[in-house]
Amino acid sequence: MPVKVRIPTPLQKITQGKAEVEIAASNVKELLDQLEKKHPGIKDRLCDESGKVRRFVNIYLNEEDIRFLKQELTSLKDGDEVSIVPAIAGGSAKNG
């Protein structure tokens, strides 16, 4: 069951420049493991030592944050779209 995974620009060097890859997986944890098999080194950027998604990495399943679903155990089905979005720290708003 292939799932389309959108890769953020900073990680595309690991996926040979691909902005999207297809991975067969039944849940997000399996997707991350399969992504690592196909593109070694990517999981270290996305997960901590315990295998949990780093807090500055957001993963969306069909535009829903997996943190509000079942996190790494969120089920996937054929045709789903997963987006990996690194959190961006920003400047300050000026009142004026």
Topology record:
Elements: E1 2-6, E2 20-24, H1 28-38, H2 42-46, E3 57-61, E4 64-65, E5 81-86
Parallel strand pairs: 1-5
Antiparallel strand pairs: 1-2, 3-4, 3-5
Main sheet specs: 5 strands, mixed
Rounded average pLDDT = 91
* End-to-end distance: 53 Å
| Radius of gyration over all CA atoms, rounded | 14 Å
CATH class placement: Alpha Beta
Number of strands: 5
The total count of helices amounts to 2
Strand content: 15-25%
SSE string, helix = H, strand = E? Answer: EEHHEEE
Task: Estimate nothing, just give the exact number of structural domains.
Answer: 1
- What is the 3D shape? globular
What is the strand arrangement across the widest sheet? 2-1-5-3-4
Which structural class do the helices and strands define?
alpha+beta
- CATH topology (fold) name: Ubiquitin-like (UB roll)
In CATH terms, the superfamily is Beta-grasp domain
Short synopsis of the structure:
This protein has two helices and five strands, in the order ββααβββ. The protein is α+β, with helices and mostly antiparallel strands and 96 residues long. It has a five-stranded mixed sheet, covered by helices on one side.
Structure report:
The chain has 96 residues and is α+β, with helices and mostly antiparallel strands. The chain is built from two helices and five strands; from the N terminus they run ββααβββ. The chain has one domain: Ubiquitin-like (UB roll) (Roll). The protein has a five-stranded mixed β-sheet with strand order 2-1-5-3-4, with helices on one face. The longest helix has 11 residues, at 28-38. The chain is globular.
